[in-house]
Amino acid sequence: MVRTLLMFLRMELKIFLKMASKRERAEVAVACNDSVSYLYQIAGRHRYASPLLATEIERYTRIVAGLSDGDLEPVPRASMVRHPEIFYGVDAGIEVKGSAGEGQCGDTE
Q1: Helical spans, DSSP H, in the chain
Q2: Which SS3 state, helix, strand or coil, does residue 87 take?
Q3: Per-residue pLDDT tens for 57-106?
Q4: Residues in Cβ contact with 57 at an 8 Å cutoff, skipping those fewer than 6 apart
Q5: DSSP state of 98
């Protein structure tokens, strides 16, 4: 019943970390180049994620959730940043590609 109730609510990082296995938590942390402890800091609202980190967490929680047979759901990036309105109207399907130096504004081709 609790699991059914959680599916109707938006998946928060705190719930995701609680329901995920140790391996799933570690996979998300390693993929985002952070520690599981830092993810718990974000989940407990002791820290806020940068927009880039929030996008990475959303992306990798989506991958882990897809492999979990429906037990987990992706965590929306707007729930982890100080000002969630920065994501309003932004397509959720955008993937972060390349390094910080590639494709910056002002590049001409």
Answers
A1: 2-8, 13-19, 22-31, 36-43, 51-66
A2: helix
A3: 999 999 999 999 888 999 999 999 999 999 888 765 555 444 444 444 44
A4: 13, 28, 32, 39, 42, 49, 75, 77, 80
A5: S
Domain ranges of the chain: 10-79
Distance separating alpha carbons of residues 93 and 34, to the nearest angstrom? 22
Write out the two tokens for 32.
């985002």
Residue 9 pLDDT more than 80?
no
Amino acid (one-letter) located at 75: V
Q: How far is CA 41 from CA 55, 62, 83, 86, 109, in A?
A: 17, 20, 17, 21, 41
Residues 48 and 82: their CA atoms lie apart, in Å, by 6
CB 67 within 8 A of CB 38: no
Both tokens of residue 65? Answer: 């959730």
